[in-house]
Design a protein that fits this description.
heterodimer; A: alpha/beta; 7-stranded mixed sheet; B: 4-stranded antiparallel sheet; 38% helix
């Protein structure tokens, strides 16, 4: 019915009592997510919104049986929060935190090579499975249950495109925001593999942007998939050498250009939308052609 | 954050990498005195945040202190790719026999920094990467122990450099990797690494970029921040907490979220306009932030109109609308603004805009087309 997250997922929130965590935790619960507790060192034994707070992730996992963690910890401690969750054996970690020093992320990813934990983020809006709930900050009302998978590097652009899909009657199986940083835990190709294997996903929309070569790598894989992929690339007007908001969104020399990504997708026979408004029709055409 | 060559060399010197001695001059007199102190010949190098300084005439050899004065006088104040040269590095000229390239960059695929080594130095590494990628040797750094000297030596040996460079360069490359990690860099390059006729191996030029996200813990480097002359607005935006990038068109663009703003720029271009800037107000912005953003964008004299594109989640439409109305009284008279609000507070926001006689777009495309049309109508 989905990838990474479903009705049976049991979520803890690291940094639940902070400004971000305390605002978004109740909204996750409203969306249907089974939030089973939180972690704030020094507040172990207290409760928040009726949920137990623990000092460590290991305690939280032992007491609640959590199998996913949502991290709102501020940048300085964010990478260690990922490592703590992995060390405790949490299989899915979604880290929302923006402004994490990139070498901290690199350290956490090195640590994770020896732990079977999937990390989404950092600097991402999280993920949602319509009908099951969300982990992160996406506005849940825009979603509709259905069979289109969605993956993007951006937050608000995701909401924009998902809204267009929903308006067009195209519901979503799962929607993943992988994040805008130069080093992230899970890339497009990883998500495409999961959607390809998911029996309840029929097609995938992938919204990429300038910087790096994840879209090119994903294009090569998309060419081998049994399910259609529809692409969109933002930043066609971005000049080289300028960071467009996201730390990872920068064209350096000839690598990471929108043009190069569009061409790589087209070579892989992935239809690329010129504007986001074309996406729903391209999805419908691809589904009709199956 | 970009830093200058002399600052990058200072970092490398602290990590034990051999660099040429040198001093900074801001006047021709100072440059002459430095040449006299070090002995001639010297090289006078413009310190600006762009590549290609040599080709632009910003790097010159001087044979006497008097010539140093004359050369420095010409380079200081020179315009290089829109940047005014305010400082020059005066450094003893180096007799170079061979040049190599050493670099460290971030690699998304391996999720770590990677070392790049090439026996073809002194050139544009991106050009080599594009035309002869086999001439570049790549190796991932293990964040647990950085780059071991034995690995560094093997990389240099594979690159085919002379054995004196394998030995001395191995230590330099290992220290370059350490400098990269400990200074929280996102790029560190020695280009060229020079071999002199008497067998010295020296970093003749260096470039380092520091991760903005790490500046809170890299306080010394944070204190090195300087306004880029070509983009004084970008420097001021940072101080104001705005994510702003100056572009060269006339349509101001403001939105929430990097991907959405980038997509809005593309949409302005499709509507036949040219974006003047990128400005992301982030999540949950209040009316005051919206007002500040509008006034900031309007400070760019090229801006003839502004489009605001907000998808409300934690950002509320009525806050955005109130910010636009507040800003309007202080904006240049007749400056067209078209707002597009969706999501949380959309109806309330539109009602506020309508009451204030302001224009809005039904969606992103409509808003972009409207602002481009309004600017064109004003121009006629």
């Amino acid at each position: 019915m989905s990838i990474l997250f479903d009705k049976d997922s049991r979520v803890i929130v690291q940094g639940m009592t902070g400004a971000e965590g305390s605002y978004h935790t109740p909204r996750m619960i409203e969306s249907g997510t089974r939030v089973v507790g939180g972690v704030t060192p020094g507040k172990g034994g207290q409760t928040f919104n009726g949920l137990p707070i623990f000092d460590t992730v290991a305690q939280a996992k032992a007491e609640t049986g959590a199998n996913a963690s949502c991290i709102f910890v501020p940048p300085a401690g964010a990478a260690e929060a990922i490592m703590e969750a992995a060390e405790a054996g949490i299989p899915l970690v979604v880290i929302l935190t923006e402004f994490v020093p990139v070498l901290d992320t690199a350290r956490a990813m090195t640590y994770l090579k020896e732990h079977p934990t999937t990390v989404i983020g950092p600097n991402c809006p999280g993920l949602a499975t319509p009908g099951a709930g969300k982990v992160g900050i996406m506005p849940y009302h825009i979603f509709k249950e259905g069979r289109v998978g969605f993956v993007s590097r951006s937050g608000t652009l995701t909401y924009e495109v998902v809204s267009l899909l929903t308006e067009a009657g195209l519901g979503q199986s799962s929607c993943i925001g992988i994040g805008g940083d130069p080093i992230i835990g899970t890339t497009f190709i990883d998500i495409l593999r999961l959607f390809e294997a998911d029996p309840d996903t029929d097609a995938v929309v992938m919204c990429g942007e300038i910087g790096g070569s994840d879209e090119e790598d994903a294009a090569a894989y998309a060419a081998t998939m049994t399910k259609p992929v529809i692409g969109f690339i933002s930043g066609r007007t971005a000049p080289p050498g300028k960071r467009m908001g996201h730390a990872g969104a920068i064209v350096s020399g000839t690598t990471g250009t929108a043009q190069g990504k569009v061409e790589a997708l087209q070579r892989a026979h992935v239809p690329v939308a010129e504007t986001i408004f074309e996406i729903p029709n391209l999805v419908k055409q691809a589904l009709a052609a199956r | 954050m970009k830093i200058h060559e002399y600052q990058a060399k200072e970092i490398l010197r602290r990590f034990g990498v051999p660099v040429q001695p040198g001093k900074i001059a801001t006047t021709a007199d100072e440059a002459e005195a430095i040449a006299a102190e070090f002995g001639v010949p010297v090289v006078v190098k413009a310190q600006v945040y762009v590549g290609g300084r040599g080709k632009a005439g910003g790097v010159k050899l001087a044979q006497t202190p008097a010539e140093t004065r004359e050369v420095a006088g010409r380079i200081l104040g020179m315009d290089i790719k829109g940047l005014t040269v305010e400082k020059v590095l005066v450094t003893p000229a180096l007799d170079i026999k061979e040049e190599y390239y050493l670099g460290v960059i971030l690699d998304r695929a391996s999720q770590t920094p990677v070392v790049l080594v090439s026996a073809a130095g002194g050139i544009d590494i991106e050009e080599v990467a594009a035309t002869a990628p086999e001439k570049i040797i790549r190796f991932p750094i293990d964040m647990r122990w950085s780059l071991l000297q034995m690995d560094a030596r093997q990389l240099l040996a594979r690159a085919g450099v002379p054995s004196v460079v394998v030995a001395k360069g191995g230590a330099i490359l290992s220290q370059l990797a350490r400098a990269f990690i400990e200074s929280d860099a996102t790029l560190a390059e020695i280009n060229p690494l020079a071999l002199t006729p008497d067998g010295k191996v020296i970093a003749a030029d260096a470039k380092i970029i520091i991760d903005d996200n790490a500046l809170p813990r890299q306080k010394e480097y944070a204190s090195w921040a300087e306004p880029e002359e070509a983009n004084p607005l970008e420097y001021e935006a940072k101080a104001e907490g705005l994510t702003y990038v100056k572009l060269d068109g006339d349509v101001g663009v403001i939105g929430n979220g990097a991907g959405l703003v980038m997509t809005t720029l593309d949409m302005v271009a499709r509507a036949g306009g040219k974006p003047a800037n990128f400005l992301d107000i982030g999540g949950g912005a209040k009316a005051e932030v919206m007002k500040k953003a509008l006034l900031f964008v309007a400070r760019d004299p090229q801006v003839k109109g502004i489009v605001v594109n907000i998808f409300g989640g934690i950002t509320r439409g009525e806050e955005v609308a109130r910010g636009i109305i507040m800003a309007q009284q202080e904006l240049p008279k007749g400056m067209p603004i078209v707002a597009r609000l969706a999501g949380t507070g959309e109806a309330e926001g539109r009602a506020l805009l309508a009451n204030a006689g302001l224009n809005w777009g039904s969606d992103m495309r409509d808003a972009c087309q409207k602002i481009v049309a309004e600017i064109a109508a004003k121009g006629n």
